[in-house]
Write a structure and sequence with these properties.
With 71 residues, the protein is mainly β. 0% of the residues lie in helices and 46% in strands. The protein has a 5-stranded antiparallel sheet with strand order 3-2-1-4-5, with no helix packed on it.
Length: 71
Amino acid sequence: AGDITRVSVKGSRSQWSYISRNWGQNWQSNSVLVGQSLSFRVTASDRRISTSWNVAPANQQFGQTYTGNNF
């Protein structure tokens, strides 16, 4: 329990889509999410799901750090 098995991202104008680990703590999405606020959903190996809504604002920039309420 506690291992992360899936991470999803949702833009304010898009549906949930899976993101994949690129390298280390870097994650990537094939979705175009520019100009949208971002929500994240994390699924653990024990099937528990944690969702943090509107973590990053629509005017988010690369290199900035945001913290969800559930993480």
